[in-house]
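As a warm-up, study this chain.
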Amino acid sequence: MGQDRQRQVVLACCESAREAGVTPGLPVAEAGGLLPSGARVEAYTPESDAEALRAIAVWSRRFSPVVAPDPPDGVLLDATGCGPVHGGEEQLVGAVVEGFARHGLTARAAIAPTFGCAWALARFGDAEAAVVPEGGARNAIAPLPTRALRIDADVDAALAEVGIERVEHLLNLPRSTLPPRFGPDVLLRLDLALGHAIETIEPVRPSAPPEAERVFDGPTTRWDALELTVRGLLAEVCDALRARESGARRIEVELDRSDLDPTGFALSMSQPCRDARHLWSLARPQLERAHLGFGVEGVRARASRLGRLPHEQRERWREGAAVADAATERAVAELTDTLTNRLGPGGALVFEPRESHVPERAGRLRPVGIGGPAAQIDACPRHDRPTLLIDPPEPVRVMALTPDGPVMSVNWRGEDRRIVACIGPERIGPEWWAGDRSGRDYFKAQDERGQWLWVRRDTADGRWSVHGVWA
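Now compare it with the structure written out below.
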C-alpha cells in the first residue's frame, strides 16, 4: 500500500487478491473488506523493493552471467550462448519460470533477439514462456498494445486518441510522421524492440569472495613452510571478512602440486567464523593428511560461503552472565566444527523439533550447519517422554487386567517381564491431515528389574508394542 494524497491505497496486489476483487488504486479500507482473514497488507518501501529486486537478479545469474534488475518488477538476462548449456532456449526459458515458481514467485519469461522484444512479450504476450527466433521480432510484437514498447503513459494516451492502439499500427505509418506529433521516444523504443538500435544493460556484479594466495619460488614439501603459509592465508581471509563484517561458513584450501593435479580440502563451520586460530585448528589435521606429491608450488584459501557477523564488544558492555553465555555458545560452535570436519558432514547432528504431537514426528536429526539453526518451537507435549525412542516400535505380547490395560506383564524380545508399576493410559490422537486413522494409548510400565518401558496400544486393532525406554 502507499499514500495517495490523504488516502492509503493499494499499489500492487497478488493474484489471489485480484480474484477477491482487489485492484491497484483501491483504498486500503475497502480492500480489507474484500480480503480473507490473515491476508497481509504491507507498506510500499522503494528501498526494500530495490534491494529485493537486486537479490533476485543475483540469484538469476545461475541462468546467465549477465543479469540486470529492471525496476520495478523485472530482470533482464543476456542469454546469448546460454541456450546450449541448458539444452536449448525452450528449456532455458522454462527453467527460469520453474525456478521462480519454486521460490513462490509467479514469473513470465521470453527469449527474443532484443531486450525490447523480450520485455514486451514477457509482459503482454499470450504465453507464459515464449521464444522468438532470430528475425522474428517484428511479427512477435506487431499484435501487442503500444505500451509494450515501454513508452510513457502520456504518449500512449496520445496514440490511443488517434486510434493507434497496437504496435502494428505504428509499423504501418511513415516514420517521418511520428516524431513531430508524438516525440522522438516512440521511434527509439520501436527501433530498440526491432534491433535497429543498440541497447545495453548494467549487470549486477556481486563482490568476489575473500581470497588469499601464495606462490612459492619452487616446489616444497616442508611442513613448516606449508604451516606458516596456510596460517597466514587464513589470517588474511579473516581480516577481509572482518572488514566486511562477515564470517565464513565454508573455506576452501587448494594446494597446487608440481607433478599432480591440485588437491585441497574444505573447512565447514556451523556458525559464521573469522577466528584464524579456530580455523587453523580445523585445517591442520586435513593438511597433515594431504598428499603433497613431489612438492607444492602454491596455496590458495577462499571463503566460498559467508554469513553476517557484525562487530560487538562483549567484555566491556555485557554483564557477566551474558559474557559466559556467549563464551559457552562459541565453545559449542567450535566443538561441532571440529567434529564435523574430522568425522565428515554427518558426524555431528542436531535435534530439530517439529510441530507435531505424534512422538516419532516431533523432531528429527539433521547434520549441523545444514538448514540453519534449530527451530525454537515448543513442538513436544509437556509430558514425560522416554530417553530412547524405538522406531519402528517393536511388537510385544501383553497381559493386562482388561483389554485396554493396565499392563501386568509383557513378553519383549523373547523374554517375559513382570510389571510392578504402570502409569496410564495417555491417549495420543491421530494426525488426520497426515493420513493417520488410528489413535494410541501409551502406558509407562516398570518391570521387575527397574527398567521403564513405554508400551503402546493401537486403538484401531488393539496391537501392543514397545515404543521407547527410559535410560
